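User: quick one, sequence for these tokens?
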């Protein structure tokens, strides 16, 4: 699956709305007693969300299993710039890094359980 999909361009041509797909890391979080897989934490906490990308099957592409997280960003776009694609891909990479950091924080202890002594 592609890492990004351009969904729309403003009529003025100065912004793009983009769906960004970020891989969720394998491994487990810090929840006690045994840790929960990052992908399980994402899948169970986000529910059965679909995709905003037309005709994209969320199950087949890992969105419902927690393998992939979809976010939507709006980025500036200069139709006349020679580096238009390079800038778009840099914006996507920035979003993916941000999402990775947010996932690590948001789900670090997701699923922890225990008894009060």
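Assistant:
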């Amino acid at each position: 699956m592609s890492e990004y999909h351009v969904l729309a361009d403003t009529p003025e041509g100065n912004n793009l709305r983009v769906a960004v797909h970020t891989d969720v890391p394998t491994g487990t979080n810090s929840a006690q007693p045994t840790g929960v897989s990052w992908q399980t934490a994402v899948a169970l906490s986000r529910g059965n969300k679909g995709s905003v990308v037309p005709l994209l099957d969320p199950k087949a592409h890992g969105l419902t299993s927690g393998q992939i997280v979809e976010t939507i960003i709006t980025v500036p776009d200069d139709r006349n710039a020679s580096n238009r694609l390079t800038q778009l891909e840099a914006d996507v990479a920035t979003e993916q890094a941000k999402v990775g950091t947010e996932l690590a924080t948001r789900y670090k202890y997701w699923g922890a359980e225990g008894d009060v002594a």
